[in-house]
Amino acid sequence: MPALDTHIVLRAHVSKLQLREMSTEEERINGGPLKAMDLLKQQKLLRNVANEVIEETSRHIRYRRFSKREFVVHKGDAGSSLLMLMSGRLQVIALSEDGREVGLDFVEPGDYFGELSIIDGGPRSASIIAITESVVGFLPKHQAQTLFYRNPAVVEALLQRLCRTIRQASNYRSMLGLTRAYARVYSVLEASMKTSAGGLLTIENLPNQQAIAIMANVSRETVSRAIRSLIDGEVIERDYRRLIVRNAEMLAKLARGEAELQLRAKAMGEGATVGQSRPS
Question: Start and end of every Cyclic nucleotide-binding domain (predicted)?
């Protein structure tokens, strides 16, 4: 059999296996303690729509379980479905210059993705893998378009998300325009800052240093030194997998390329104080 024909047969076999997995997973979800309707009501895109819309969506959505480290989508693939994460956790990844996978962002239960391909017909814009065993719902393109175009609440949710994406892209372009490498790292960290319970400013699920380096277009060593300078200057504090922002005003100045000398002086002053306090 010619190589091309073999490739086509293999692809068809894989597609059949995936369809079988989707059918089995759908039976598990519909027969389990959490019904498909309950899971769909928890989806961010469907929170403000009528039950009839959710019922219609549930008739068309198909589910598939992914193992840890399994690819959910590949960058450049055709976008034939809108995807919703029912359970588990996914990660958006990029490839570093040496071919390593670098995590950039997380997808949590209730999140959706793949909407750009549904809207403009383009290919997938990023690769996503499962970092725990996960169940993903696939809503075919035609039904997803119907959901988008006939429900104002869904359109509003999409527009709000697109606005956030555009703002992030604008901030990212501004960040890359900063000439100081440290300032670009500070800008990435500031953009990741959120207000947690009790009004505490935190950077949750901190990406690894290689991921920050890719986003800031700097070396991993530069990221390490920049974070260390923030800790020494008491701008941030490590708390397991997150950072607590103790001086948001200073971090904002640093992200604009300002106050770096002030930070260094403070860090050096703290170091000198510690050194002087040690017994001889």
Answer: 45-165
According to CATH, the topology of domain 28-170 is Jelly Rolls (2.60.120)
Q: What is the rounded distance in angstroms from the CA atom of residue 87 to the CA atom of residue 65?
A: 9
User: H/E element holding 94?
Assistant: strand 90-95
Q: Are strands 134-140 and 112-113 parallel, antiparallel or unpaired?
A: unpaired
CATH code of the domain made up of 178-256: 1.10.10.10
Report the relative pairing of strands 112-113 and 81-87 from DSSP bridges: antiparallel
Q: Residue 239: beta bridge partners?
A: 242
Q: Are 230 and 244 in contact (CB under 8 A)?
A: no
- The predicted-structure confidence for 93-133, as pLDDT tens digits, reads as follows 877 666 776 777 788 899 999 999 999 999 998 899 998 99
Q: 36 vs 30, 191, 216, CA distance in Å? A: 5, 35, 40
To 10 degrees, what angle do helices 220-232 and 181-191 make? Answer: 70
Q: Which residues contact 153 (CB under 8 A, 6 or more apart)?
A: 48, 49
Q: What is the pLDDT of residues 222-246, one digit of tens each?
A: 999 999 999 998 999 988 878 999 9
Whole-prediction pTM: 0.66
Three-state SS sequence of 1-36:
CCHHHHHHHHHHHHHHHHHHHHHHHHHHHHHCCCCH
